[in-house]
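User: I'm writing a tutorial on reading structure tokens. Could you give me a worked example: one chain, its sequence, then its tokens, then a sentence or two explaining what the tokens reveal?
Assistant: Sure. Here is the example chain.
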Amino acid sequence: MSEAATNGRMSEPLLRALNRMRSLIRDPEALVKAVASGKQRGTSPAWRRAEIRYVDLKAGTHLQITTYDATQAFTANHPVGDLEALDALLDVPFGRWTVTALIEGEQTEITIEAKTPHTALVTTTVKAAAASAGAGETPEVDRTHDQAKERLLSEDDPVFVALGLSDQDGRLKPSRQAKYRQVEEFLRQLTAAIDDAQSTKRLRTPTVEEPLRIVDLGCGNGYLTFAAQRYLTSVRGLPVVVTGVDVKEQSARHNTEVAGRLEVDAAFVVGTIDGVQLDRTPDVVLALHACDTATDDALARAIAWEAPLVLAAPCCHHDIAAQMRRTPTPSPYAMITRHGILRERLADTMTDAIRASLLRLSGYKVDVVQFVESQHTPRNTLLRAVRTGGPVKGGSVKKEYDELIAAWAIKPRLGELLGL
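And here are its predicted structure tokens:
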């Protein structure tokens, strides 16, 4: 048999094809991988992609389902036999399913393309066992849990060596792994947000003459500034100019020296977030872990600049938390604020919900997402805002905001900066 041969192509009812696929997915000894993508005509699936495989964990073999929205992945592991999540995924109107499985000792790929809501074109391709294993051997399903993840910038990239995250031999320092992870995941969010905003014409396509202008407010040691410049220019091939802003003159000097060693187009300005003056208004505003109300200052500047794209990862939500400790708790929430740890968590959630609402009132479409897993850092919330050109229609968002701050007797910093 040749390495791969098309064994058949036929049209059949979509539901029948999916049920047959479901039987393969249920078998841990047969399933290699199942991937769903695309959408059926006239539908809007909740996910743009899904991947299914089995993994061997300490608790036993589990069915791992990874779903992808526009910017990030969500992974959940389910005990063998628990099919609720699988059945829910099969109800999503994906346009295409591709299942790779071991059938009678041969690796077989089955593709199901939904032609209508009720019919599908099913293609079956069989690969000889010898193509996947040694001659005479039967291929085995790989259920290894830890798989290498493709990195946007490798650990030995010169930018990480220059920033001190990796040593001179390009090995990531153990003490800097969390920072590397944060920067890496932030870059994923940044590049996906740029692609999204450009595809909807909310963000212009840069040229050499008019590069994309990115400003990092509260840049500190410039981890994000340099990584963004490096990835977008060297990997994505986008003309960009980055500017880092920080109140510390020492940071500006250090970052300017690093930029010189790396020979990159990056400028660093000494100034406060609310007072800095730039030669040109930015296209993209970033704020990674600006402490407490510094995030509000960054969002207010972005709104004033009418920046097309804003990404902010808040940090240290002290302001609203302190106000909540000083004011009476509205009924019936006393059972929550009675416990300090729960009151602080509620204050964190309320702070970012208020920020999202105020961004909407200022003409932005806003998503609040997790950009890195909580085991790496508790500071993992990201506000992703794309300017739509006008404030949200109707008065419900403003009414909700007014009622919330009145009930809790709080004065959000961003609201004051925006005069609301």
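What the tokens reveal: The first strand starts at residue 4 and ends at 13. Residues 4-132 form one domain.
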